[in-house]
Amino acid sequence: GGGGEDGGGGVVAWAGSTRVGAEPELVRRVGGAFLLSRSLSSRYVRLLFLSTHQFDASRARAAVYPTDPAPKPKDIKQASKRRLQSVSVPDWEAFSASLLLHWTSAASGLELDGAVTKGLRAVRNSLSDQRASAVLGWPLMQQAELAAR
C-alpha cells in the first residue's frame, strides 16, 4: 500500500496500518474548543507540536556538523535562511503530521510516546559512544567485542 492524504494536506499512516497517533483527538478538542474547521484545527495542532518540542531550524548546522569549528551566530543565521528558503509551511506541516503519527499515541497528546522517547535516548547514547570512540581512536569492532563480553 501507499501513503495517503488526510484531507488537511498531511501524511497519514500507510494503507493497512493501525497507527493512529495523537493528532485526531487533538484536532477534535481544538476544533471544539475554538470552533475551528477540521483543516484549520489540524494546521494549528501540527504547528503547535513543532513549537512545543522546540524544533529550531536555525541550530540545524551545529547539530549536523558537531566536529566543525563553531560557526558564528551570524553565519548560522545566514546559512539557515538560505537552506530553509525552499521549505514551505506545508512542508513543516507534513513533517509535523508524520511525527505526530509515528512519535505520539492517542493517549500522549502533544507529548512524545514513552517507547519513542526511550528509543531516541538509546540512539543519542549510541551516537555519543561512537563519537567518544572516534576521539579515542577505538575501532567500532573493538567496541562491539567489548560490549559482547
Could you walk me through the main structural features you see in this protein, from its secondary elements to its overall organization?
- The chain has 149 residues and is mainly α.
- It is built from seven helices and two strands.
- A two-stranded antiparallel ribbon has the order 1-2.
- The longest helix has 23 residues.
- It is flat, with a radius of gyration of 19 Å.
- The termini are far apart.
Write the layout of secondary structure elements.
Elements: E1 4-5, E2 11-12, H1 23-34, H2 38-52, H3 60-64, H4 73-84, H5 89-103, H6 114-136, H7 140-148
Antiparallel strand pairs: 1-2
Helix pairs in contact: 1-2, 2-5
Mean pLDDT score: 74
Radius of gyration: 19 Å
- Provide the structure class: mainly alpha
Q: Give the strand order of the largest sheet, numbering strands 1, 2, ... along the chain.
A: 1-2
Spell out the helices and strands N to C. EEHHHHHHH
Pick out the low-confidence regions: 1-10, 59-68
| DSSP strand count | 2
Shape: flat
Profile the largest sheet: 2 strands, antiparallel
Q: Give the count of helical stretches.
A: 7
Please report the distance between the alpha carbons of the first and last residues: 43 Å
Beta strand %: under 5%
Proportion in helices: 55-70%
